[in-house]
Amino acid sequence: MAVSTKNQSSRRPQGRQVGYARVSTDEQATQAQEMELRAADCDLIVEEHGSGASRSRPALAKLLREIDPGDTLVVVRLDRLARSVSHLLEVIEDLTAKGAHFRSLRDPIDTTTPQGMFSLQVLGAVAQLERALISERTKAGIRAAKAKGKLPGNPGLRDRRPEALAKMSATQKAAYGHRIQASANQWLPIVRRMRPDHTWDDIARVLRQRGLDWTPERLRRAVKWLVNEHLADPDLLKKSPPRLPEDRLMTLIAGIHGSNPGLTLREIALQLERLHERTPRGGSRWSPSSVKNLLDRARRLGLAPSSTDTP
């Protein structure tokens, strides 16, 4: 038995064990959960106060953005982490995308073991069945209502009742916040590198080149939401300073290089052409030497990391 336990522990990831403890109200304490998480050798414990039904989990969102590959997110029970099976699967999918793992101390879910992954697949199948059943029940209810001459939908919304409209607005805002937090790790690091030196239009164009569908207006709105929720620095919303065309190109190239230091000069030139950026002389074709001149200038001004190696 001792040998088996040793082998099992040796298969565990070598990263940190990060505990997550949540209670529903400020009056409740996370002490009991913290004791179990410390006993499970957690290196760090993140606390959250919020209802289980609430979509707003700023501490969890921040943890998911900052967790490192090889780390394991640990909870005492599944209900401390997720509102539903589908929410649980979303969180685990985010962790997997970052190379991190998940473990629940009181449930058979541990993505570092084959048994835990099997349990997760079972949960996924249950969630899919649950969604199918809900869809069928909704369709059956609509058919029955129409057969009785009733209109489908919320009567309060049809009648424009203030309380129904307020509830719908709150639900939409919560869903919007959840979407922003779920995708922030894909685009927020680039925004942090480029703001406020670059305009929202410049950043949106860089993000679109990376396959992310953003407009300047939607991007600014998303960052404003994060700032209001204290999840991003207010300086990101500062007005971009006016710049000469060549200065703007210099900072744009520094931003592209900073978001992906592995790009070669030629690859940066191709990105600028795809962005339809004109060269300092007004041409449409960029040469690696033009990129290098502007990047070197950005380095001298401290806008890009100094490097002895040419990208």
Describe the protein in words.
The structure is a single chain. This protein folds into 3 domains: 12-116, 3-Layer(aba) Sandwich (Rossmann fold), CATH 3.40.50.1390; 173-237; 245-300. Helix content is 55%, strand content 7%. It has helices at 2-10, 31-39, 58-66, 85-97, 114-147, 155-158, 162-194, 200-209, 216-228, 245-259, 265-274, 288-300, and strands at residues 17-23, 44-49, 72-75, 101-104. A 4-stranded parallel β-sheet has the order 2-1-3-4, with helices on both faces. The model is unreliable at 1-10 (pLDDT under 50).
Uncertain spans = 1-10
> What pattern of helices and strands is seen along the backbone?
HEHEHEHEHHHHHHHH
> Roughly how many Å is the radius of gyration?
25 Å
Instruction: Specify the CATH class of the largest domain.
Output: Alpha Beta
- Class by SSE composition: alpha/beta
In percent, how much strand structure appears in the residues?
5-15%
**In order across it, which strands form the biggest sheet?**
2-1-3-4
Which architecture name of the largest domain does CATH use? Answer: 3-Layer(aba) Sandwich
The general outline is: globular
CATH-assigned fold name of the largest domain? Rossmann fold
Query: Main β-sheet, in a few words?
Result: 4 strands, parallel
CATH superfamily of the largest domain: Resolvase, N-terminal catalytic domain
Percent of residues in helical segments? 55-70%
> Total number of helical segments?
12
Provide the domain count. 3
User: Would you count the extended β strands for me?
Assistant: 4
Cα distance, first to last residue?
Answer: 54 Å
User: How would you state the average pLDDT, rounded?
Assistant: 79
